[in-house]
Amino acid sequence: MSVNVNTLREDEYFFGHKACAGCGGALAVRIALKVIGPNAIATIPAGCMSAVGFNFPQLCFKNNAIISTFAGTASMMTGIEAGLKALGKKDYKVVGFAGDGGTADIGIQALSGAIDRNDDVLYICYDNEAYMNTGIQKSSLTPFGARTTTTPAGRNIKGNQKVKKNMFEIVAAHGIRYCATASIGYLQDFMNKVEKAASIKGTSYIHVLAPCPTGWGIKTDECVEVAKEVVDCGLWYLAEYEHGTYRLNRRPREFTDVAHYIRRQDRFKHLSDTEIKEITLQRDAKWQLLDKQYFSK
Amino acid sequence: MIRDVNEKAFTTLKNIPFAPAYKHTLVSVNSGFRTEKPVCNRDKCNGCFLCYLYCPDGVISKDGESISINYDYCKGCGICQKICRKDAIHMEKER
Amino acid sequence: MTKEFLSGNEAFAYGVKLSRPHVISAYPITPQTTVVEKLATLVEKGELKADFIHVESEHSALSAAIGASAVGARTFTATSSQGLLYMAECLPYAAGGRFPIVMMNANRSTALPWNIYGDQRDSLTLLDSGWIQAYAKDAQEALDLALMSFYIAEDKRVATPVMVNLDGFTLTHTYEAVEVPSDDEAEGFLPDYETDNKLSLEEPKNMAFTAGPDTNTEFKYKEHLGVLAARDVISECEGRFEEYFGRKYTGLVEQYRTEDAEYIVITLGTLYKSVCECVDKLRDRNRKVGCLRLRYLRPFPKTELIEALKGVKAVGVLEKDISFGNEGTVYTNVCSALQQSSFNQPCSNYIAGLGGRDVPLSDIEEIFEDLEREQNGVHFVGLEE
Fold first, then answer.
1. Which of C245, C277, C298 is the last residue before a domain boundary?
2. Residues C108 and C232 placed together within one structural domain of the fold
3. Which residues 6+ apart lie within 8 Å of A166 measured at CB?
4. Which residues between 43 and 82 in chain B have a beta carbon less than 8 angstroms from any beta carbon of chain A?
5. Contact yes or no for C204 and B23 at CB 8 A
6. Distance, in angstroms, between B42 CA and closest chain C CA?
7. Does C341 share its domain with C276?
8. Is residue C385 part of a domain?
């Protein structure tokens, strides 16, 4: 385990893409491919990354890359892996990059199947908390209170009323070989996890939070900062699951102010102090569980 | 190299591939919608390469002890300027 | 070569085994199950060295098959009815990517109402998905089509997936004596799959990409040419097949006593044998009748049909299918072909066998009688009023 800014491959594998300026998802894909290297075979469903990377004749992947159906990221990876294995190929890594909708909603069946079979693939969910490619519609990973184009914030309903589904724990519950959460605000941590996951024989999963300036209503230069702050204020956590046990990579001694994180994003600007208090309470309740889960023994 | 080929190279039955599969190819730059561009002051840069690491577009490359920026593909998001701890990058308005 | 007593599904499974696929991905659905069960058994015994993927849905079955085909592996899947509809999104995907996957479809009615028995509504719903579609008449042809389909699909001029349809239960589960070629004979007939249209570590590709309005028509046109190219390749393939195995096939259509026929019933699948039996019976009574079977619906045998129907007084299209609010889909295709020729005789449509209803000889005899009355239009055979 030695990857860092100095040892990282200098070649760029995801280059020339048409993602919005300051795109968190593009950063996650770029870094993961630089960690895995030229023998990565990327599978990317319909969504932002395929829309910005594969516009013939502007084709932005220097490694092998293929667009899958929206629901079929994991199943296509399964097939690619099976095909290469059957043909006797060696030294490759099949890696998927799907968004939150592609993973937690339409693609969860195929993902569950791949984990169940323990196919030798790495699945990376870049989570920007809504269907950004189609114009910021709610997914099951949209956080409580967020305004999207299908959960508008008005007098009657203040944005999304559901709390974010915990994909990391859902995946871990399969008894997967390795899974982790990450944030593009903490790239060293993300790189470590990609390197580890890529080295594992069997299914591995990384859930990386990747803000979308366009959908979240933040400035393009704030993307990384916000991705860091969501971890620092405790609304997202960095953890791993391996050999049946959970490990927390970062336990902030004191959380930064949730209100500061919320107030800087347009998608939350309708929220009152009461609702921000509610979100803070949700955070505290989650951390009580996390502390029990990770530190009770 | 800015572009591999001209966009017009792929328009007819003869020159498009038989299936939707082709090698990495760039036909257009991405700088058209940039309003600001990052400029690095090499004297202040300490070569930590955090800007290189955090660039979503991979347009910053290591250049000796400092960095260089590919302005054909830089979209001017400003992440590099924010991540820099030495204040070595500032944003300049495009004219 | 050995002679075995096999069901249509088992025969097809042997055909697949002889084709040496690298990857098989399948999800169970009645009446497809026994073909994949047989293949799983052959893998377990070591007689077939393929990676058998137990996928969690039909959508994943074909999605995984596309993934495997995209790296250059020979790939097989099988399904039926609701399963075919569930994987529907992946069908044009496989065709547009020019991935030569072979799929067996056990023709079965589509819900609602639920029904597990045979009709052709499932595959005909997907006639426009870009796949070559073949329909087998018996277990021997099922085995032979399995072998030939890989040859046709993988030909560089074609590079198109093939769906082989077997009538649910009447063919999939009915036992017949079948000649099974040896591994060596099959290997001689079917060369290894080689393609440049694949993800490769030596020459990486961006695959299954987006093509906007500027180039989309050109890609689709090439796809269309691929299916059309199958016309010649099917003919070449059948010539080669006859050389290797001695059995002769007749291209996109098969005809029975049509040379001087005045009345012809066009059909597909296992109904052909019933219609032929009826033709014999009527010929004994000096009636000039014949039968024509569409072996392939894509590419559509336009020229063969026009040629075969020259001088005929009336034509009936008998199919297990209805495109609600219009007519049988096969009938639509036949009429379209005839409209492009000088054919100017009545052509009627007979909808029969829906949801597995038996089509007795007496019904077919009535169809021939009906043709002599020169009736046009759509008729539901055996409708209980």
1. C245
2. yes
3. none
4. 48-50, 52-58, 61-62, 73, 75-79, 81-82
5. yes
6. 36
7. yes
8. no
Yes or no, beta carbons of C67 and A64 under 8 Å apart: no
Q: What is the mean pLDDT of residues A173-199?
A: 98
Domains of chain B: 29-93 (3.30.70.20)
Rg (CA), chain A: 18
Q: Do B20 and C219 touch (CB under 8 A)?
A: yes
Residue C167 and residue C273 in one domain = no
> ipTM of the assembly?
0.96
Q: How far apart are CA A136 and CA A149, in angstroms?
A: 6
CATH code of the domain containing C198: 3.40.50.970
Tens digits of residue pLDDT in A37-80: 999 999 999 999 999 999 999 999 999 999 999 999 999 999 99
A80 contacts in C (CB within 8 Å)? 67-68, 70-71, 199
How many domains is chain C built from?
Answer: 2
Q: What average pLDDT does the segment A24-44 reach?
A: 98
Tracing tokens 């940039």 back to the chain, one arrives at: B34
- What CATH code is carried by the domain that includes residue C325? 3.40.50.920
pLDDT tens, position by position, C161-220: 999 999 999 999 999 999 999 999 999 999 999 999 999 999 999 999 999 999 999 999
DSSP E strands in chain C: the ranges are 2-7, 23-26, 51-54, 75-80, 102-107, 132-135, 162-167, 175-180, 206-207, 253-256, 263-267, 289-294, 296-298, 314-319, 347-351, 377-380
Q: What is the pLDDT of residues C303-320, one digit of tens each?
A: 999 999 999 999 999 999
Q: Does residue B7 carry a pLDDT above 80?
A: no
C276 & C330 share domain: yes
The distance of B92 to chain C (nearest Cα, Å) reads 35
Whether this model's pTM surpasses 0.95: yes
Please, what is the average pLDDT of chain C?
A: 97
C283 and C157 part of one domain: no
The topology under which CATH files domain A24-295 is Rossmann fold (3.40.50)
Question: Is the pLDDT confidence value at B1 over 70?
Answer: no
Percent residues over pLDDT 70 in chain B:
94
> In chain B, what residues touch C209 (CB-CB under 8 Å)?
20-22
Three-class DSSP labels, chain B: CCCCCCHHHCCCCCCCCCCCEECCECCCCCHHHCCEEEEECCCCCCCCCHHHHHCCCCCEEEECCEEEECCCCCCCCCHHHHHCCCCCEEEEECC
Three-class SS of residue C239? helix
User: C69 and C49 in one domain?
Assistant: yes
| pLDDT given for residue B22 in this prediction | 96
**Every domain of chain A and the residues it spans:** 24-295
pLDDT for residue A297 is more than 50: no
Its domain, for residue C289, covers 253-380
